[in-house]
């Protein structure tokens, strides 16, 4: 029994399905461009085997453990580490068993499809995961992980990844990227510049991070001019390790364009830890515009990922820390928020700003109209909770009519779950082919135009937008 | 001629339709679980015949009279009673005629399908309602209502209702429920605890209601501690009449978790009628958290129904009173609003909080992410204006991928229109089978997994979530 | 090769497609009612040939040039005139070439379908537009435009327009409308009353416009009473030229109902240029209620078009002026905003208020519930960015279940692109037939009810709502 339907995500109507299937056949084997994600560069640097099935599939995947948590499973029982180093489950087989008996909870979710895809395509499994098959699964996957062809670099090749970007803080020493480069391995693993820790005055350690950036670059980051120069230097350093983009995970899409004197004064307050919440927000907003100006100079693509209310549960943050599935989206305004940046640099053709959202109400109302007119703007793909069949369909249906296809940038997997990467790209390719086939079947696109667009959506647009 | 298409609401694609039809055949005759509604317990207590066709179908159904009103029909001409007792139409046949000649206005609405369902299945009618058939309809339905098999208890059995909850104010004496119990009739009609009148300082009669609750329970409700104890006692009293849930119809989802001293002080201001609007809102929000704490003690499921801007028209409120179709939804935030309650008790596995919304933009953005991680949270079904084919489809499409099926609670009819209950459940069952069939047909669910899920969505989840 | 698929926008399922096709066949040749638009009355007054293909299709169409702009084409290179009269491209063939080589960017957008419709149906073209065919296209269209049958009045007849409304400022002398009337031509071109310039204190020239309205009417517009009388007189003047509606393009849907003394005092502040932004907003809001009161007197339909954040780019506004594709929608509240007007006049059956939105989240949540109960309210069609296949589908799916069909007003093209008018109506007719066919195929509408509704949606509702 195959875990996956070969025609999954294609239209139910026979003729439209045939169109989708034909489009998909043409592009399904294109290399993967993964310009935005969170895999660990250390994997590719050291190329050590993954620890065990639970460490590969359960403990680090917040999509999985949040669903189990929602039905009463304790995070500690899934091996999620505690901030205080206190006891959590460490027996991989036990964690796996708990996962297996609750696997049915994932019915209808994208995680289910990603996992089944990994089980079938990466590990050659043909039976369904449940309490009965749990041990068999565990043994089988553990056996595989011990084989050389399941090491990170081997999987990288097998997954047909042409380029993958990781994400590192501005002050990261990029040691793993250096190790990859020095190793002579020809896999293209690049970094991306994530300066939240040196831009957000509310982040723990902000002033220390800024000071560290000064040491790293030799600029006097106690001054506004030196601070900007240090950014320039770190961006250049990241570019040495392949970076083509920066990434900014602010709570809102707020931008500002302050006079330089005001920005400098606010920077001093931020360093002194004296910003009010509103001033901190203004500073973050202003720094997006500064980042955009640097992007015009050095060509890094600016990615804005707003809208998540992070760490919604105090108890979980206290016990397990950040990124534990308790980040909840909220309403996000773009029209007013982006105006200062767009008025400053929005008509510049040397700038690319990729916008993401967790608030789908902005697709048709705000993002498509903005991206459909400003030369610098492009729309990132359906993101996070919306990295799914319905989420991707809504993205296309709500953006294409106003922004077209060429103001979008293909697919980003945005994941730290390595084995899910081919699964996620496959879902995106299928959904996009289904969308194109539907346009053809309803006379909204000529049949001879669809294959070229399928190629663009699967490969070309990402490669071009991210300069890969 | 049948009024209803046997395959209504199934997919148009032949193969997918076959899948849906098979799923539906399996579950269509399951008993109805109706854990949240507004039928009148007096019907079941006294078991008297319904008055006349207009009193059954038109005058009490705000879905019907709001549509006629929107096209210029006066509420008084439909027999809607005036607050001042002034004259309104009382001739059932005349009201019915006005309804019949305007019945075409309901084309494409769920009311049309519920009414046709009632006409066909409850009254065996095979011709369409319009001006020509109005009198025939009136006579036929009036004749039926005079028969014993159309009395409330007989219909209850015929509708295959396993359990139905009505909703009573916290200070209700539950006399009709007592009469049902004392009658020895075996229909399961239970109450639900609706304490808005003793929780909302802005409600007319708030202090009197609180005082009455004191008399009913023997606690000194002039004190904060006594007030909470009185709630506990009334909840226990409601549980004696089968209650398994409380229900809270606040304008927003705001919750608060005040220090007890502050809550006590605010309660005194509320009793004295001295709360500012903001303070009244804080008090309501805090009381949701107190109710949640009591739910952990006594097991009542907490239902939050926010988002309606009640009584939008001053003239209608003045003339005809509340609940006259002029309640209009508005934007509703959940992420920030629920945080105090969730931080207080959200990780407790002994608590069930069911969330409803009239703001569909919150489904994918807020509600599914919240319910997909907090153990206490479950999503109520598509509600009120969204209790419809498209509304239910959007609910599934926008919540399943993030929250799965098991964080939802099946269907609630939420109605005071008794004959519409089987019709509404039937719509929900058909739409859910169509959704499941579509997942199967597009390879997102294995075919052997669908029947069990259909059973859960139609019956099991409601029974379990509401402890029935 | 036909540019258009004959079955475009019909359902993909065979049986449902047959239903849609049959419905469409019945109504596709009905005359066009165009009650809201922005064609230039001068065209019909002078009946001169259109200048050249670029002036017809590219330079005035913000849907087209905004997409090219979004991919880096300069507006000046498309011949968009500069505010300062500075140089822009004037060579029609060059502009056309730039348009042709970028035509692929419009794939999947409604503009592509409207343009192909015009090319095929108006100009008899059977090859696709691209860089290779650009010159051929230019020559062919230019040749056509030189023929008498491509002059405005001939096209008007050929397009089967029964009535078309243009939009003129309150102080317009309506000279072109007078010229049309005096010419004896029998095409029905009517005006609509657009008083933004004499209602919005923030508009440049507000006080001068009000003074001019005084001169035009003989009323003393320096007084509140005279100002209102002048509105009445101008409305009557517009009615002489066929106006059946007024149109109001405010940023929000805010309404107010001030005491007359307060309104009079605010008007004096507005004339003196001393309104704060908030006061200006209150004044605009109050004037909507005054306009509604006048509508009850004189029968003009009141159209409210809120939600666009105009002129988002300062640079584009400075260089090219208003209406250059940089108007971006934002969140729009209706429930609170409309309440003052609705409390003042909302139950009046002699009033028709047509509501439009750019914020689709309000369809199911706010607009359908409001229009489904207030006698004065009707919903305008999917508008501007949503005048598209997906936009229209969402409109029907999200409004019909609550507001029905009869609280909607058919289609408005709202365009200044003359040749796109039949194309736009054709899209609306196809999408509505598809929607109705889907309701029939899924048992939500009886098959014999669909043709009458198709007629209403295509023709009857617009004619009745706008009194044409």
Automatic annotation (TrEMBL), chains A, B, C:
Coiled-coil residues: none
InterPro entries documented for this protein: Metal_Hydrolase, Uronate_isomerase
Family under the similarity heading: Belongs to the metallo-dependent hydrolases superfamily. Uronate isomerase family.
GO biological process: D-galacturonate catabolic process; D-glucuronate catabolic process
Organism: Paracoccus amoyensis
Record key words, sorted: Isomerase
Protein's name in the database: Uronate isomerase
Pfam families attached to this UniProt entry: UxaC (PF02614)
Record pathway: Carbohydrate metabolism; pentose and glucuronate interconversion
GO molecular function: glucuronate isomerase activity
EC number in record: 5.3.1.12
Keyword flag Isomerase: yes
